[in-house]
Amino acid sequence: MLSTYVYPHFDYLTPAELHGGARRRHPVIVVGAGPVGLATAIDLAQQGMPVLLLDDDASVSVGSRGVCYAKRTLEVLDRLGVGDRCFAKGVSWNVGRTFFREHEVYNFQLLSQPDHKRPGMINLQQYYLEEFLVRRAQELPGIDLRWQNRVVGVQQEGQDGEGGVTLQVETPDGVYALACDWLIVADGARSSIRRMLKLEVEGKVFMDRFLIADVVMKADFPAERWFWFDPPFHPGQSVLLHRQADNVWRIDFQLGWQADPDEEQKPEKVMPRIKAMLGEDREFELEWVSVYTFQCRRMSSFRQQRVLFVGDAAHQVSPFGARGANSGIQDADNLVWKLKLVIDGQAPDSLLDSYGEEREFAADENLLNSTRSSDFISPKSKTSLSFRNAVLTLARKYPFARALVNSGRLSVPAFLCGSSLNTHDGEAFNGQMWPGAAMDDAPIREQGRDGWLLDAVGEHFMLLCSVDDPAAVNASTMAVFSALAAAPVPVEAVLLASGGGAAGAGLRVFEDCRGRYAERYDARPGTVYLLRPDQHIAARWRRLDAAAVAAALTRAIGKH
Amino acid sequence: MSTLITEANFGAPGEHYLRSFTPGDDFYEALLDAHRDLSDAQSELLNARLILLLANHIGDLGVLREALHIAREEV
């Protein structure tokens, strides 16, 4: 039992269907109230979509699971209304240090520049994230969250699944049936729905074991990620140290494939390992111990007709790089706006194929990077160990070897540059805000109030138009903006100006108060960016062209 | 006379990398892949052959002597 956290209990209520309530067909059912399922349901509800969320448990996840939440995840959580709570409770960090035997060989900085709202990472126990998301979900009228509702049967109906999906759901009061148009599966790595639908997930088990020990202690180590290769206190293996909320510290010991998981979890085995690391005099309490292995694999297709897989149900990676939960949250971010447009009849069904296309691409990048990290951390032959140690001995003095040290390539959003939703650049731009990129943040000022670009955009399509003088926007440009705002899929135009100022006709103006927008987006007066509802770049130009914007929008909603 | 490059130098002509670690990681993976399923003795032979091929490609004896010197420093 944890000493620092009390698990909330969420009440089960008998579903209306089980006491004679009318059966109706739900537009969307989400299965699994972990971080990804909750994020999906909240996003749908925020966009005005009623959603039924089912979970087989009655609390948050038990024990120590996800820890590191990346900048991009925090930006999505901001949009979902829980960013501040996570940030306030979590431990922010930007610096990672890597040691080999007694010496530091390499360190990295996650954010190379200031002027971002969120840090590179926060560390926060997963149960806090889930609890904050549950509280948020309970605030939203559109979410029907049902605890202790376990899906025991699933079937796609009609030809090509056009008839939607029916579920059999087991509760303490018996089994009942549900029907929906769309099913979102967020039931985790051992997805029972994936198994019931007989869908394969391809990949491999990684042949190594790791011991997690969460300890409570007062320590003034800096809030940084520390990673040791072959340290004197745990020879021949690696160790990772992270600070979490409530003075809980995560220590992750590599054990090797031969280790006996039951034996290794015994306090008499764990305590000496920790004392060897922290010193005999350090006072601490054991909060949680477990031994884990991991798999690197993904489903070949995240979309199965009317069933959409998100998070660990769709893909699993090694923990090195924090690419699991972080990529799952981005799945939700990518999927929800598309599903909403399709349900509303404003985009073709094929827009949902782009969910698979984009997130399978991102999953492959996550699998590639986390597999490479695992291969570096856990060499599988005498030769790979020799190369690994050679890199580490060279790294202290020679920069090229530092770049090869791989203790985890930490989660950053994939650049979806190959996506079929993008419109390719016709003009030259510097920087990294290519079509398909997740937007970089920048400080802005709106109506005299300081804020952040990423808090001011998203949930619908937007057009950022850089101008010299917001008051000087001419009538024909205003007519273009009005037409975009009134289109079936509306686009909100906003002006960006280095000096701020007021515009006519209720047009919003973002003042690029520190010049970071101009710098990060290579923007100058005339530059126009078309933004997707998930804060990704759809297209950009050096001057406003109504026909080009219309064509790019059509493409970005899958009509081409 | 050229000197040994010890700054990060991996890449492919005309290729643009989104993350600076990617070309180095690409090389490292290719290196480990080359050794896959070989015995230790076979790997040793592969390494020796690889060094000879790369040394000939570099050619410049000054650069090679510098590399030999650094390689021996912490052995």
TrEMBL record, chain A:
Its cofactor is FAD. GO terms for molecular function: FAD binding; oxidoreductase activity, acting on paired donors, with incorporation or reduction of molecular oxygen, NAD(P)H as one donor, and incorporation of one atom of oxygen. It holds the Pfam family FAD_binding_3. The keyword Iron-sulfur does not apply. Signal peptide: none annotated. Keywords: FAD, Flavoprotein. Transmembrane segments: none annotated. Residues 27-365 form the FAD-binding domain. It comes from the Bacteria. This is FAD-dependent oxidoreductase. It comes from Candidatus Accumulibacter meliphilus.
TrEMBL record, chain B:
It comes from the Bacteria. InterPro entries: DUF2783 (IPR021233). Pfam families: DUF2783. This is DUF2783 domain-containing protein. It comes from Candidatus Accumulibacter meliphilus.
